[in-house]
Every structure is written in structure tokens, then in C-alpha cells.
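Q: Joint fold for the lines below.
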Amino acid sequence: DQQVKQNSPSLSVQEGRISILNCDYTNSMFDYFLWYKKYPAEGPTFLISISSIKDKNEDGRFTVFLNKSAKHLSLHIVPSQPGDSAVYFCAASGSTDKLIFGTGTRLQVFP
Amino acid sequence: NAGVTQTPKFRILKIGQSMTLQCTQDMNHNYMYWYRQDPGMGLKLIYYSVGAGITDKGEVPNGYNVSRSTTEDFPLRLELAAPSQTSVYFCASSYGGRLTDTQYFGPGTRLTVL
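A: Joint structure:
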């Protein structure tokens, strides 16, 4: 039972354009959502988060949007850069300190 | 700060062998976590600890044991290794719980059980 789903295993975007990574969840008790970025042979690193009391959070080129009624969140990267090429994981948590991760989306930004 | 360090980086085990994956953090974090990542899958929580002497099970604890005798160290023990435990293991730490701090991850240990 995959409670956090990233249905696109990969995404390819041209440098300078917008990258949109999507994430869906099934558990309505989730109230905190995060995005992590992972390069090969490294551990994930925290990118951005959003609480369920908000519908948008922005940090530089990265913006996360949350649509609670659709149980959907998305990560927008504008403009995309070659250094953004990595695997992006969506994660969610409810009333405990445990994170539930999605399966990841591999983003490739080409020149 | 070295952050979260894990040893070894790679290991091959035979079925039935045992080993301990080491994890150390130098950030004085209270919370520590062990995850595994199987190919094409997300990270799944094995065990976590909210402080020295306190541990609790995550989603996939079977076949593993942990201890937390100090704030800095959180070793993961595999007894009677099985091919299903072939995975990449990540240790993570955070100062507080989910809403107060993010998790910082180590570089991972790639384990193969043959």
C-alpha cells in the first residue's frame, strides 16, 4: 500500500525551462510534506517543505504547491539548471515523527 | 562538522552471516533513523530513536536490531542475513521531531547478500 506516490519515474527538461514534479498521497491524516533531492552515491538532502495550513511555499527557484482536496503536491523549479539533475523524493508525515517516502522522480536537465 | 557518517560504504555478505552497520552524527541531534532503499523504491523506515536508550520500530523492522547507548551512535545489526536484505541503507538524524527540524542523511551503505 503506497501512501505516497510519484507516478513519473523520470522527467527530462531543457535548461532554463520549468520543471514540475508531482506527488500524490492517499492518507488524509498527513499534514506535513517535504521534498528531498538525491545525487548518486550520496544521501538525500532536504530541499523544501510545506505544512498543510499553507498551499504554497517558496524558496528561491523552488516552489512547492499543496492541493489538500486533491491530495496532491508539486515541486516547481524555475529556471531549471543542469545541477538540478538528481532524483527527487516526496515525503509526508502525520501525527508521528515518521516520514513516508515516495518512489522518486529522476530529473534530467539538458543544455 | 562531519555530519552523519556511515561505515562501511560497501559490503557483501553470505546468507546467514551477521554484521553491524555503523552510524555516527556529530550535530548533537536527539533523533536518529535507519532507512533502506530498494531499487526503484522510496526509502522505508526500519527503526528510529528519539534519544539515548529509546528505540522504536518503523515500517520494516524484521531481521534487524538497533541500540542507542549514546547520543552520537546508532548502529544497525543484521542477524542471519538474507538476500531480501540486499539494499542501500541510510542513516539520518534530526534535532527534533518532524515539525521542528529536517532530517540529515549519511551517504549510505550498499549491502549485497549472496
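Q: Anything notable?
A: The CA atoms of residues 37 and 45 of chain A lie 5 Å apart. Chain A has no helices and eleven strands.
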